[in-house]
Amino acid sequence: MKREQHAWDPPQVSATPVRADGCSRCRLVSNEGQAYNIFLYRPDAPSPVTGYPTLFLLDADTDFLLVAETIRRLSRRPAATGVPPLVVAGIGFPEQERDLYRYFDLTEGPPAHDPFLRPHEARFGGASVFAQFLQTTVASYVASVVPIDPVKSVLFGHSLAGFFVLDRLTHEPRRYFGSIAISPSIWWNRAHLMAALPAIGAAGSLYAAIGEWEEELAPWQRTALASPRYTSIRHERRMVSNFRELGDRLTNSAAIFPALFETYPDEDHASVLAASLARALRFIFTKQRD
């Protein structure tokens, strides 16, 4: 007997993976023998004579598609959005023990003070080597695949990767055309950033953003996340307070590079990345604070 099909019955079809146009993935191995996932987005717009600007995106395992698709949409009308066609070169950490590799590659040493992180469970201090890997191995690979402008590269990081972006700016202020630090973990080495960033003088442009609810529980979190330990972590790390103090120090310093620190209302550590992305890109490429 033939089964009667109702309007609400799901259609019997085969699903296939969705692939993003212009995107690819490969693996690169550093001189130290560490393998990384490399995600690449190439715009379909004609290349400028000098090559495309390039966004080097950290934590690409989680953020690549969001960033690539946002850039694809914005760069269709660069005169209207302020965002030109960009290459996105995403660097992803190994799937296994990802957090441990992040602690090593994104830091120059253990946190100055953090009672919630157990230093004996992680390794630290690989930031300089990782930065060199980005500037040589990754950049050379990208240049071999797509024409890029060597003087228009942007470094983008969120959370601990945002701290890495600020830290590298203090070490090599003119390395990148622009730096984007979203929800940077300034607490990792607050004293260093507070002293070094305002003192660097000339540098590439800097855009930094934080969510309003990164130091306190947001209203919608106060039931599900209201544990004493979780609340203590937020208070101890002072994400918003540190961010605003660093922004004020930079504004009142002798630094002569374009910089913008913005706090996003009703956003938290997870949501502020998507909320700030368009403004971050527009500021880096137009220097407009609107």
From TrEMBL:
GO terms (molecular function) for this protein are: hydrolase activity, acting on ester bonds
Tell me the keywords, alphabetical order.
Hydrolase
Which superkingdom? Bacteria
Name of the protein in question: Esterase
- Which family does the record assign? Belongs to the esterase D family.
InterPro entries for the chain: AB_hydrolase_fold (IPR029058), Esterase-like (IPR000801), Siderophore_Hydrolase_D (IPR052558)
Pfam families hit by this protein? Esterase
What is the organism of origin for this protein?
Afifella marina DSM 2698
